[in-house]
Specification:
The structure holds three protein chains of three kinds. Chain A is of the alpha/beta class. Chain A contains twelve helices and twelve strands. Chain A has two domains: about 220 residues, P-loop containing nucleotide triphosphate hydrolases (Rossmann fold, 3-Layer(aba) Sandwich), CATH 3.40.50.300; about 100 residues, no CATH class. Chain A has an eight-stranded mixed β-sheet with strand order 6-7-8-3-9-10-12-11, sandwiched between helices. A four-stranded antiparallel β-sheet of chain A has the order 2-1-4-5. In chain A, helix 3 packs parallel to helix 6, helix 4 packs across helix 6 and helix 6 packs parallel to helix 7. Chain A is globular, with a radius of gyration of 21 Å. The termini of chain A are far apart. The C terminus of chain A is likely disordered. Chain B is of the alpha/beta class. Chain B has a domain of about 60 residues. In chain B, about 35% of the residues lie in helices and about 20% in strands. In chain B, strand 4 and strand 5 form a beta hairpin. Chain B is globular, with a radius of gyration of 21 Å. Chain C is an all-alpha fold. Chain C starts with about 25 loop residues before the first helix and ends in a 9-residue tail after the last helix. Classes of the chains: A alpha/beta, B alpha/beta, C mainly alpha. Chains in contact: A-B, A-C, B-C. The interface between A and B is large, with 56 and 56 residues. Chain B: This is ATP-binding cassette domain-containing protein.
Amino acid sequence: MSDPVLEVEDLTVSFPTEDGVVRAVRGVSYQLRRGEVLGIVGESGSGKSVTSMAVMGLLPASARVGGSVRYRGQELIGAPDKELQRIRGGRIAMVFQDPMTSLNPVYPVGDQIAEAVRAHNDVSVAAARERAVDLLAAMQIPRPRERARDFPHEFSGGMRQRVVIATAMANDPDVIIADEPTTALDVTVQAQVLQALETARAATDAAMVLITHDLGVVAGSADRVLVMYAGRPVELGGVDDIYYTPRMPYTLGLIGSLPRLDGRSERLVPITGAPPSLLDLPPGCPFAPRCPMRAEICDTDEPDLLAVGATDHLAACHFSADLDGRRPEDVFAQTSLDSAGGAR
Amino acid sequence: MSEQPLLSVQNLVKHYPVRSKGVLRRRNGDVHAVCDISFDLHRGETLGLVGESGCGKSTTGRAVLNVQPATAGKVVFDGEDLGAVGSARMRKLRQRLQIVFQDPYASLDPRMTVTDAIAEPLRIHGRYDDEGPGRVRELLATVGLNPEHGNRYPHEFSGGQRQRVGIARSLALRPDLLVLDEPVSALDVSIQAGVVNLLEDLQQELGLAYLFVAHDLSVVRHIADRVAVMYLGQIVEIGNRDELFDRPAHPYTQALISAIPLPDPRRERIRARERIVISGDVPNPVSPPSGCRFRTRCPKFAVLTETEQRLCVEETPALTERGQGHPAACHYAEVLTVV
Amino acid sequence: MSEHLSTVAAPTTRPVSTVKQRSQRELVLRRFLRHKAAVISLVLFIAIVLLAFVGGAVWRYGYADITPAASVPPSAEHPFGTDNLGHDTFAQVLRGTQRSIEIALLIALLAGLFGTLWGAFSGYYRGLTDSIMMRIADLVLTLPLLAVAAVLTRATSGSWWFVALVIAALQWAYVSRVVRGVVLSLREKEYVEASRALGATDRWIIFRHLIPNALGPIIVNVTILVAAAILVETALSFLGLGVQPPDTSLGLLVSEADTAVSTRPWLFYFPGAFIVLIALTINFIGDGLRDAFDPTQRKVRP
């Protein structure tokens, strides 16, 4: 295997607020190789988006970032702005949830893509424009030459997102980070955008980080999956390992709580309770209060992300060995209550 | 099902005027939000109303509540035409027709305690004095919340708990029909499941009928008995749940089901190759296409011969059975398995 | 420990949230307390009110008492001195402060109440109702306050509550405009629609949902109104159109002393200082409340 293009090591992010320090990310590590797709899944507030904002150096100045992010061996945390600008948008491209945040409403989209091309390449304006049209065509925008002269508001949501993806692939990036790229979109449009992302990734042979809360989107697109909970990675592994043999109760619970389109769900298996506040996290495993397998050790020691069974499959649970081969309904109660009372 | 349906929507039309800006605010046309739709809903049954944003599913849900008058057509609830009853009678009927909103934070008054919010429907209808605090505590327990927490404010609860409050509130008047307008789409998946289970239990216990409006087909497949698929203000296909999901006949339904990724990597790898990706976006509802409204994006239309296409352009396909087991509004309906 | 949990004990819920959220009330209080000038002003204003109402009652002279010492400068016996008839100025200032505050509060109450209802109904019903109601409010706003008040109060005996009534009748429109704006946005909230779907009447929605949620801006504007009302009352009394002797108010005291500015300055400066102090503190309190209720809004219209 080739060297990783992106290495994230023990990344931490915290935000000082009026009420105290919010520890949004607490030690995320992963490596990304060329051509690989890593899916990061988690619910709102799990720190999945903050992680990638930190990788891109796009967090507000008040954020305290620790750990290390290396692009081809070059440290990005604390790197000078000029250096970051060269990499950002050039070597590492980003696609956000809301395409309007990355498009300037007062310029035609063709000009914006051309500008992105010229920012990182020494080419003429005409050549950059030509490239913009090619990119729009690659994104299956009909009549790309005419549409290049249109403004962002003249496009629909799905098309705008494809324009952003075209911009992202403009400079043949090594890494594309897509943060909830389809969340605001309808399913038929989501399918178009996911296809466009795959086209862009295949064309540039970039590695991709796909951040989403939708386990379906990840299942179809990712090679490896990182599950996050309360700012921590709780499970990391190949996509099949995560979906078919999860070793962390949270992952198992997530899968059990999904209704199935193929009609296999009899009764859903919810996870009771709600994620903890990131302000004053109690010691121990953050999932313990919602976990049916909770024991004393869970309240005192936060489990490390350790290898379980298969190669490259890591889970952060004291009892991950017990989960081998168990289904969600064996572990969780099929309740409709808000919070199932165990040892509380 | 020969008994009289609890709810019968007949040729419902709802248009919204589009006005120009400025002083005169001239009427420029109408948004055809809902265009001639009909369906029945029986006691204890769940009808899923699905479609993408702007298809008119939410408008239909609100029209059933008769808060705003329909442009044309009838909503018949338990034998009474809601458009024809007087306001006093409507207030009476409204008790039996309740709604649960998508965003539990926005639909609860931030300045009312949870107890007050749940008691509000009772107070409005002058039933609080008879049933009172006991009923509120009972409702809190019914939706799986601790009755001790009734004196707290909505912001002190998580999203899932707030939605439970919204459900308790809609149950306060002992309704027969709940319109559930995307009740779980604002919730994280792990929490969504508990609310879905709650809705199932409540239906079983109380014999409620649900009009379940949602864009998430997986949830609808899980909870609905029958499903109606809407596109641009019209129902394009309607049928029993398994029938519709396993043997969809309308090209739009097929594309919609096919577009949804399954949380199942092995099957997804196969499905991704066979996925029906429809191009383009939903047309402007102010001037929908002639004939079949889906034809501008229809993968089937694209492969028809010119003579065959003429039918799609000229004639609106009726929602009828064409030998595929359930009604579909496509001239060339044909069953295709896509899950 | 990993056994099947299919049966569930009594439901337990703990309200939870991912990041700690505070109630509106807590937030407002916190932000208000951070506004130093407002907090100091609030303390000072309460002290003035206590001094006027409690102090006035226990002070050794009544405001109408005529003491043997006429025209003496401030001393231990008469902290603010006396006038040429021997009235104790301190007692009179306290009495005047009482009157001024009473009038101001009555104005705020009347104008606040009426303006809130007017604005809420106008904003809730929109359309033609709104247009007519707001044009009426605009009309009231264009009336020259002092001139109208002068005409109306001259025609009557000038009892303090009538003065208040007249001023309130001219000031409610400010409140109604603000309330209308707030209600226009509140009425689109989903909880209003939810309430309507429950079968709530318009009155129920206005009184149970719209007005309670508009309280923040209402309080801020009524506070500003109090300060304005005190100044208007003072001006009217100064012109001899407000409170009439033997009753007194701060404006009247200043007016009576205007000939004595150089000879017996204490008669003029003490009531004057109280006017400035009251108006200033209330304005700062209003500022603090405004910032507390709406931290995004930094400037407020006059």
